Amino acid sequence: MEGYTISRLSIGQSASSSKTISEYDVYAFAGITGDLNPAHINQEYAASTRFQGRIAHGILSAGLISAAIGMQLPGPGTIYLGQTLSFRAPVHIGDTITATVTVTAIDMDKGCVELETLCTNQAGVPVITGSAKVMPPKG
Prior knowledge:
Blueprint: E1 14-20, H1 23-33, H2 38-41, H3 43-47, H4 58-71, E2 79-87, E3 96-107, E4 112-120, E5 126-135
Antiparallel strand pairs: 1-3, 2-5, 3-4, 4-5
């Protein structure tokens, strides 16, 4: 499995990856990271918040951006150099999140690519916006 080398990328090129966030995903992420915030794992507590129920960790959803970058565009062998994130809306258990990455700049001299990053839910509502800087595999 090979990723796109920088010479095979073009401005506007994009790829997407989708996943339905399950209760298991939220509990597994909480266990792996130690983030046991009751907004994520305690329904009684979460029901009293502005979200009126449990929400997924923001970084769990942001991880789907990493999957789109590492597996699709530029793909395997890509090295993450940086990421900005703005969390725009909550992600609830059962939401299907689509992470889309789009090439916005290519620096051939430095071997780096800038990507617009976007996560939307099943209704098309942006839940995360941002940008990433990556180094595609050499080729």
